[in-house]
Design brief:
The chain is mostly helical and 308 residues long. It contains twelve helices and no strands. The radius of gyration is 24 Å and the shape is globular. It starts with a helix and ends in a 7-residue tail after the last helix.
Length: 308
């Protein structure tokens, strides 16, 4: 196990280098520059001074090496748009917000999706199963920005139960709308996978043996069927959690959540190269670590899995 984890961590470095290289050259290959999106067109002399200040006139290979060497020392450079803060400061302020929102959304998704999928599998081909299928299909087919808009209109503008935007942390009512908007889609996906995986597990021979021993049906499902059925669900949950944390762009922008997804949108539209590169690298690390945690969890769920 230890050797496997060490190998996986070591492969993270070349992966991040590839991600950085691709992102760096794609960003710089895009027509235009960081000073072309200003509300008022800047004089050419000002642009030249800004390019000189941020070393944008240097050869591209030199910019590539300089930024990479700074990142290895933990310095993501200055932000072109938010000159009062560095990229590291912006990431340090916005990433915890997205992590809190992501974990809250995933908790909602598991609490909503897993029981729904299990119930649909146990009550297969009944009205409960059909109702669960309708809910899951609706959740999967509706994108997050539509869900958050509907929730704002219904709960904030319609009945005035919740604020229409903002963020005050985990223990404030403002977290409810973005959490439901982000978590209902992954919850629907988890419900689908839990249903199909549990249906397959319920047909296995070892469950007949468990029933023949006189175990109650609830014990057969919880102790034997559900544990094996969770392996594909855990795989999907890990990928889904990554998507929730790194893909909350529109929900954060619409609801005014100061998360890293909102900063990513601002950096892309404002051509803030250092911020865009820094956030992309952070996203790559989150995705790689989450995949590693999912792989490690297989060994705990299925004793047949061996790491070599």
């Amino acid at each position: 196990m230890t050797n496997y984890v060490i190998r996986r961590v070591l492969t993270l470095f070349p992966t991040l280098l590839v991600v950085y290289t691709l992102t760096f050259f794609i960003v710089h290959a895009t027509p235009g520059g960081p000073w072309d999106e200003s509300e008022k067109p800047l004089p050419q002399a000002v642009k030249d001074n800004l390019n000189k200040q941020y070393h944008l006139n240097d050869p591209l290979y030199k910019q590539y090496i300089d930024y990479l060497s700074n990142v290895l020392r933990g310095d993501f450079g200055p932000s072109y748009r938010d000159t009062a803060r560095s990229v590291s400061d912006i990431i340090a302020a916005s990433l915890p917000v997205s992590l809190q929102l992501g974990f809250a959304s995933m908790l909602f998704a598991v609490a909503f999706g897993l029981p729904l999928g299990v119930l649909a599998a146990i009550k297969q081909n009944t009205w409960i199963d059909y109702g669960a299928s309708l809910i899951t299909v609706t959740g999967i087919a509706t994108p997050p920005f539509v869900r958050v808009t509907i929730l704002i209109v219904a709960l904030a503008i319609g009945v005035h139960w919740l604020p229409s935007q903002g963020w005050e942390g985990l223990f404030d009512v403002r977290i409810i709308i973005p959490t439901i908007a982000l978590g209902s889609g992954p919850g629907a996906i988890l419900a689908r996978y839990a249903r199909s995986s549990l249906l397959e597990a319920l047909t296995q021979d070892y469950l007949r043996t468990a029933r023949a021993k006189g175990l109650r049906e609830s014990q057969v499902i919880i102790r034997h069927a559900l544990k094996n059925a969770l392996i594909p669900v855990v795989t999907v949950a890990g990928v889904t959690l990554t998507n929730v944390i790194t893909g909350a762009f529109f929900v954060e922008s619409i609801y005014g959540v100061p998360g890293i997804g909102r900063q990513f949108i601002n950096s892309a539209t404002g051509r803030d190269y250092p911020l865009l590169l820094g956030i992309t690298l952070v996203f790559a690390v989150i995705i790689a670590l989450m995949n590693l945690l999912v792989d490690i969890s297989y060994g705990f769920l299925d004793p047949r899995v061996r790491y070599s």
